[in-house]
Predict the structure.
Amino acid sequence: MSRVDVFSNIKARDASNIIEQSFVRGEVIIILANCIIHYEGRALSDIGPGDRVLIIKPDGTLIIHKKIKREPVNWQPPGSTIRAYERNGRLVIKSIRYNPYEIIIVECLEIYLIAIYDAIDPYALEISGTERDLAELIYRNPEVIEKGFKVLKLEYQTPFGIIDVLGEDKEGRLVVIELKRSSAGLQSVSQLRRYVEAMKNLTRRDIRGILIAPRITESALALVRKYGLEYKKLEPPKVPRTHDGRGVRSKKLLDYMDDYENKTE
């Protein structure tokens, strides 16, 4: 095979074999197809027949695009398991994420084209955990905060600055979360308190303030207790991120999120 191979007018069984073998070899797979998409995880959803672009990456990432908008209609993150097989004469692609459990099944009614790309990426890999990675972790897995917690908004603007995560606990109380990628000090506690006080002026609901960091100084922890706030120890996830010599980083989930609004009253 060359570095780029393109297949058209291909049968489902042959397509599944090509996809399986290419994924094992660590190649990028691009599929143009008319397909049905089924999702099962935190919810259930089905998307009817339509022309879509599927991208399968060697790290298990699956992205499914329509012909409009920049956001995918469905996607799975790195680490997901990819399988391809033929069923009733149709190509089926299954992507499984195990934690949390989410599954996407794509049934191709018609295959227009499959492109296999032996991509060579010269960028170095940097393993880092940032406050943005922490926010993404909480967005994907809100129960790392506590059972029943849900995210209302990321990067919520207040007169005193931007709240990293605004959420709601199982009792219906608003939760203001301040994130720190390293040790939290007195300034972090004071900043969280300002955000909590700002929210009290905007709503009549009960409000909690939680400082999230892998470590906290003794004086900062004492101030947390004095102000009636809370501290939770949480390490930012170590995330592979590409960069060039100038330190340009790859975009994350939060760069592509819709800036949706939620009522706070």
